[in-house]
Specification:
With 186 residues, the chain is α+β, with helices and mostly antiparallel strands. It contains 3 helices and 10 strands, in the order E-E-E-E-E-E-E-H-E-E-E-H-H.
Length: 186
């Protein structure tokens, strides 16, 4: 796998081409002295549950169908990149609102997974932070922004293989494996 630094040929501060590897984590400009550390971007992911709408009981998980590449047409969870000057909790609330119209009341951090996300032919390294989010009225969910569809899937029918992005598959697997522990936050 190619190191992320291979994408950066010029100093982002002064534009010099004398931008060289400083160590495994940084590049340094030999002209202005600027040292650039390539750190992951913050991204958030929401698990939203509601009581199952069937006589069997249990829970349903809110999923969205991706309306854009990468992995267009596959299942996903609401989420996205955190904005500048925004906490990850604020970011997950904003992303849920933008993609589903739902207002998040509470967030509970569950775990994080390092990821790579191809955006505009640029490989963005991310740290995906997964939250269990409580919403007041799940009946208001509808597809917006880059979500093509909103679905409620009974938790026992959720299959990680149906999710198109690698870290989301991993996150769904981890969530399902620890579901009894996470449900206490609901």
């Amino acid at each position: 796998m190619e190191h992320p630094f291979s994408q950066f040929h010029y100093c982002p501060k002064c534009g010099s081409a004398h931008f060289v590897e400083n160590n495994a984590k940084s590049k340094k400009c030999l002209d202005c002295g600027f040292v650039y550390y390539f750190n992951p971007s913050a991204a958030t992911v929401a698990f939203i549950l509601r009581p199952a709408q069937s006589p069997v009981g249990g829970f349903e998980l809110l999923v969205v169908r991706r309306g854009k590449e990468p992995a267009k047409g596959t299942l996903d969870l609401p989420g996205g990149f955190s904005d500048l000057y925004e906490t990850s909790e604020e970011g997950v609330c904003r992303e849920v609102k933008e993609e589903t119209g739902l207002e998040v009341g509470e967030t509970h951090f569950l775990f994080s997974i390092p990821n790579q996300y191809l955006y505009s032919n640029f490989l963005v390294h991310t740290i995906d932070m997964f939250y269990l989010c409580n919403v007041a009225d799940t009946t208001l969910a509808h597809a917006m922004d880059d979500a093509a569809e909103v679905l409620w899937i009974p938790i026992q029918d959720v299959s990680p293989e149906d999710f198109g992005l690698h870290s989301i598959k991993q996150g769904v697997e981890k969530f399902l494996a620890n579901f009894p522990i996470y449900i206490r936050y609901k």
